[in-house]
Design brief:
Length: about 450
């Protein structure tokens, strides 16, 4: 089956070359070279699927030959062979791109096993029956993946809104793809040739944010020894992306509102208005309406920004997108990490579908990146999917409460946990109040009070 797989053995020991050639010739198309320069000639002329390279080629250093091979064909899997099993050598050769390391004398069966395994990996045709073959041709960068109803509706909206100058407010939990959607709006607008300038309102200290946005004149404040353009001016003609807008301080919100009304900015230390032609797109994972109620966000600004609202649902509410996303990220990272992953085993998708993805698409992307990185062959298998369940459950609980309670977070979360524990303990103890109180470590009087508080009926 693997006769199309071409193997190169590089060793100055001609007996070993001959022996290995005989051993492998039944299954592979085997070539040999006794020194580095012959080997490099062969690598230049042929595409090898696997190379066995001796560390010590007479006077030549195998690591130098490895380097030269990788310059010609960066992706060819190279297995180093040596009589000296020191960890430095292992490290050096792995750094240079060797995929395996075997210590002489080599066990013939082991060589066949490695060759079969690695050659299969490198052989793009090899893809087990229970796996999905990846289509690299259809991959393109920076596209918004998803065919769920929610995402299809959003795409229709994006197409309609991209060419207008309306402000857009993108909402959704962290990691749902808000920034990506904003980039896509810019890319599909008439402004695409002009700058796309993102600014994260939560990441920049309050006192800097104003000068970052509006710029300043020389002498506007101590340390302002020359004038500086703000993001509004830099984004002129293009799109300004105000990320985490919910974190913008109130006094800056007032200034932003003025820009939206006047279409002009005033640098710090200047009293001249300067017209700017900027499309504003903002994003937040906070509930702005709640912030308005608490007096932390201006209602008038909210209505100015929220001309068009795109709300990205969490990934757990559109699980039908998980498969497409997993495929997309596998190809993306396979290319980026110089791997040649050809397929994903079906069982992997079942694992991905079972999980709730509190960190949304970002978390899925990280899990897939890790899988691509750690897989030892050219397919992604269930064991390559490292979802840290304990950590993720913690994150999940935290995210759950953060998303649910926008005010009095601690009190409300603790109350919810308390009510749940009481219900659980009641059930476990057949609704016996004494036993339940005991297991909870509280008195019956306290338990009764809590049952009343949480309106728990027995
Ligand atoms: N539908 C999608 N298709 C392809 N990639 C996606 C999609 N959604 C999200 N991503 C990727 O997931 C990662 C997180 O997305 P993004 O940064 O846009 O999320 P966000 O909602 O802005 O997060 P935060 O609120 O934490 O800033 C990015 O690498 C992004 O490219």
């Amino acid at each position: 089956m693997l006769m199309s797989v071409r193997v190169l053995i590089i060793d100055d020991d001609s007996a070993l070359c001959y022996g290995l050639k005989r051993l492998l010739s039944d299954s592979f198309d085997v070539h040999t070279a006794l020194n580095g320069s012959d080997a490099l000639d062969l690598v230049k002329k042929n595409k090898f699927n696997i190379i066995f390279l001796d560390y010590k080629l007479g006077e030549e250093n195998g690591l130098e030959v490895l380097k030269a091979i990788k310059k010609i064909d960066a992706n060819v899997p190279v297995v180093m062979m040596t009589a000296y099993g020191t960890s430095n050598l292992v490290l050096d050769s792995i750094k240079l791109g060797a995929v395996e390391y075997i210590v002489k004398p080599v066990e013939p069966e082991y060589i066949v096993e490695i060759a079969t395994k690695i050659a299969r990996i490198d052989n793009q045709e090899y893809c087990p029956e229970n796996a999905l073959k990846l289509d690299y041709e259809s991959f393109s960068d920076e596209i918004f993946i998803g065919s769920s109803k929610a995402i299809r509706d959003i795409m229709v909206m994006v197409a309609g809104v991209a060419e207008t100058n309306y402000p857009v407010l993108v909402t959704g939990e962290s990691g749902t793809g808000k920034e990506l959607i904003v980039k896509i709006i810019h890319k599909y607008s008439d402004r695409k040739e002009k700058p796309f300038i993102p600014i994260n309102c939560a990441a920049i200290p309050e006192e800097l944010l104003e000068s970052e946005l509006f710029g300043y004149e020389k002498g506007a404040f101590t340390g302002a020894d020359k004038s500086k353009m703000g993001k509004f001016e830099i984004a002129d003609g293009g799109t300004l992306f105000l990320d985490e807008i919910g974190d913008m301080p109130l006094d800056l919100q007032a200034k932003l509102l003025r820009v939206l009304q006047d279409g002009a900015i005033e640098r710090l230390g200047s009293n001249k208005l300067k017209k700017v032609n900027v499309r504003i797109v903002a994003a937040t994972n906070k509930d702005l309406k709640e912030l308005i109620q608490k007096g932390l966000f201006r209602e008038d600004l909210y209505y100015r920004l929220n001309v068009v609202n795109i709300n990205l649902p969490p990934l757990r509410e559109r699980k039908e997108d998980i498969k497409d996303l997993a495929v997309y990220f596998t190809i993306k990272y396979s290319k980026e990490l110089n791997k040649s992953i050809c397929c994903i085993e079906d069982e992997v998708f079942n694992i991905l579908l079972e999980y709730d993805w509190p960190g949304n698409v970002r978390e899925l992307e990280n899990v897939i990146r890790k899988a691509v990185l750690i897989t030892k062959d050219n397919l992604i298998k269930p064991e390559d999917i490292k979802i840290d369940k304990i950590k993720s459950n913690n994150v999940y609980v935290t995210e759950y409460f953060f998303n649910k309670y926008k005010d009095n977070l601690l009190v409300k979360s603790v109350e919810e946990i308390e009510a749940r524990l009481i219900k659980r303990a009641l059930k476990m103890n057949g609704y016996n109040l004494s036993k339940t109180a005991e297991i909870l470590g509280i008195s019956r009087v306290t338990l009764n009070a809590k049952l009343k508080k949480y309106e728990i009926k027995i």
